[in-house]
Amino acid sequence: xxxxxxxxxxxxxxxxxxxxxxxxxxxxxxxxxxxxxxxxxxxxxxxxxxxxxxxxxxxxxxxxxxxxxxxxxxxxxxxxxxxxxxxxxxxxxxxxxxxxxxxxxxxxxxxxxxxxxxxxxxxxxxxxxxxxxxxxxxxxxxxxxxxxxxxxxxxxxxxxxxxxxxxxxxxxxxxxxxxxxxxxxxxxxxxxxxxxxxxxxxxxxxxxxxxxxxxxxxxxxxxxxxxxxxxxxxxxxxxxxxxxxxxxxxxxxxxxxxxxxxxxxxxxxxxxxxxxxxxxxxxxxxxxxxxxxxxxxxxxxxxxxxxxxxxxxxxxxxxxxxxxxxxxxxxxxxxxxxxxxxxxxxxxxxxxxxxxxxxxxxxxxxxxxxxxxxxxxxxxxxxxxxxxxxxxxxxxxxxxxxxxxxxxxxxxxxxxxxxxxxxxxxxxxxxxxxxxxxxxxxxxxxxxxxxxxxxxxxx
Amino acid sequence: xxxxxxxxxxxxxxxxxxxxxxxxxxxxxxxxxxxxxxxxxxxxxxxxxxxxxxxxxxxxxxxxxxxxxxxxxxxxxxxxxxxxxxxxxxxxxxxxxxxxxxxxxxxxxxxxxxxxxxxxxxxxxxxxxxxxxxxxxxxxxxxxxxxxxxxxxxxxxxxxxxxxxxxxxxxxxxxxxxxxxxxxxxxxxxxxxxxxxxxxxxxxxxxxxxxxxxxxxxxxxxxxxxxxxxxxxxxxxxxxxxxxxxxxxxxxxxxxxxxxxxxxxxxxxxxxxxxxxxxxxxxxxxxxxxxxxxxxxxxxxxxxxxxxxxxxxxxxxxxxxxxxxxxxxxxxxxxxxxxxxxxxxxxxxxxxxxxxxxxxxxxxxxxxxxxxxxxxxxxxxxxxxxxxxxxxxxxxxxxxxxxxxxxxxxxxxxxxxx
Lengths: 459, 418
What we know:
The complex is a heterodimer of chains A (459) and B (418). Chain A has helices at 3-24, 32-54, 56-61, 65-87, 102-128, 131-151, 153-157, 161-164, 167-181, 193-214, 228-234, 237-260, 273-312, 439-455; strands spanning 321-323, 331-335, 337-338, 341-342, 349-355, 358-366, 372-379, 394-397, 400-403, 409-411, 423-425, 429-431, 434-438. With 459 residues, chain A is α+β, with helices and mostly antiparallel strands.
């Protein structure tokens, strides 16, 4: 069965979960106008997104994948922080969501996913030469993914959403789930956490330099400068991590505070102790129900944070980013510093180039001496069995690469040197701030490595 | 439009949020081009829309501060309506003299004659609790204003000084009388990771008959300009003889930290010399190699280079006070001193920038007190024969409401008990 079926099935299941929350929670459940707007937004978002991703002419016109990812993260953030706007200055009760807002809400829930799905379906089809089939499988996957929701919709509708979700907690939960599930892992670098943390680190670093410059206490490589230790600390990745945690935690914590800040009901006027206890118990049950989705979102966000920081330390194994042939043909260009990241952070980058059915995985890293190393994400010796494919290639730990199969540390300075446990070097040159790879050389290096495997040289 | 609604509009937190969102959005849009920070600063300080946004934010924060101070210092009169708008209120019918005396007696413990306000009574604690926030915002506004002025008025220049040398920077003559630094006599450099730090760097300078101390830390104000040490190197007296021509000069060698190479170009020809520090000892333990330097009496490796000659170049190791032939030249070194690069900056806004930052940090620190220092208001008024009482807490409203409920319950119980 086609990959596009599985990808579409997974995305459709995720999307139907979000759609169920929007349509079956109040106010859309009880208000026909809100529901109609949400459905209209969903349909427009799906159609526009699919067209933007699947039609190459539109895809090329509307910017790179990184630009789209940027705007997707922006939309997720607006959704996530919309909850704070709904609560700000109201005391403890959330403002209502106006019906008109359901149109952009529905649109943003599916637009970006539909675009990436359309893009992937087209790409997979183009690789095999059967674009129509790929789209057909994608459509089947979407239908299969939406089926469970259609079948159990009447049961879902009866769930006590009105007691669990306030408009603010609904928006926050949708935002948190979008931050978690948004984007496609197949296209790499999809979590907002990594660009956010990297962007914040860059910002804080530059900001502290500006402050030091404004106060005439600029850093010096070896002279003791007043407050330089504090500035270094504030401009470090620790501050970036702190702000990332705050970014993720402010909406759920704020909602929780407003829920628990409600005073217990006044029961002195109620006759009968049983009724008084009943009133207090009802109030506490409401608190529990209202805090349930917030706590769930909280757990999702903690898991996300953990996943990203596990990837930063101790074993860093990034998702490969797909690369294509440059417009001039025959070469693949990877900017040393660009929208997808900056190699000067000396972190391992992985890329994948598709040539027909071949999937050429390669790595690039800036070494301690500021030279660049490019190699296949495989070595001449280790080749894990098919059941252990996850152990193929390299990850980064500190200043070393680690072979994921034999756990041998390899000094990054030796990348580009052939032999032993080192990754198989790929010829490249640096031109105009970009790594330039000859596409044919890359593929032939990959073919030779594969032949080596078939020849039985590997362990 | 009267001043108060205008103040509310300009100083609203919604406007602050909108302006900050715009500033963040601008940064995010610049980030699409890879290096957002310099572009963002350029936008903020040198473009019309950026300066307008920046000014709007400054005005908004200033107006918000004024609004809060005015609101907190001039409260409206107590009326039944204002009490009903508080966090919690209760109505207590006064049917006869007995219940009136009862209520008056119980209220005595919460109110005094000075709480009388118009037709009602109001007792407020934590009235000045807005001060930490106001101080913080005042510091922020001062910093923002000073920063904008500083960006457009700052002028900087620098020059290299040796001991007992007079130079003019930014039009002011200054004489360096002494340069001191804590140069280590046994600096051990292991691998590339050793961090070289030079502390206690200080320059004594004389200007207009007064003596000043200039350091790499906070700038020193001399005759309206701000001075600080930007860099330190060796000032090495040398006598160089090349092709029968002798030059006596003091060479500024930028060879710190050890491993760095400094170039000395001669006025004539295409030959030049490179200087780098030579270790006094090289210690090897297993795989680790360390190089030990005595920076109080530095040894240099001097290499003679010619523009287009490849291969090994002639070099020699020299200590101050020694002489050696290096390629075509003969070099004699004297006793070294230190040279400093001093930066002078003219910036009328710098004192305000520092003052703004200090006030801002002081306000930020004082804001910790807001966990327990916040405004609590208790008010009462008569509405016909009904006594209306209400309470409002700035923060932790739940506990304020519960406290008020417990108190009014006690009042009712006492009233029933007679």
